[in-house]
Amino acid sequence: MHFEIIGEIEEIETIAKGLSVRERARLAAQFGGGRWRKLKGKAMVRLRTGAICRVELHWYEAHGVGRRKFKIKRFLE
Asked: Using one digit for the tens of pLDDT, what is the confidence trace for 3-23?
């Protein structure tokens, strides 16, 4: 990751689950099988430059595997 999540992720919503997760096969091969879901939420992050921003994050999550592949989708402030 090129950023560090500071505090809790808020306003978490499911974007896709089950067969709707397009990268399901790659995620299973890389991290293991499970019920993969794609989620989004808002959090404060510290960027590589040291700046602290509020952003919308997207990531994948599966039971027993945890949260993987965080990505900043947009800056909120």
From this structure: 999 999 999 999 999 999 999
User: Beta partners for 57?
Assistant: 41, 72
Average pLDDT of every residue of the chain:
94
For the chain, which residues make up each domain, given as ranges? 3-75
Rounded (5°) CA angle 54-59-64: 130
Which has the closest alpha carbon to 59: 13, 8, 20?
Answer: 13
Q: Within 10 A of 47 (CB to CB), how many other CB atoms are there?
A: 14
In the three-class reduction of DSSP (H, G, I as helix; E, B as strand; rest coil), residue 28 is classed as helix
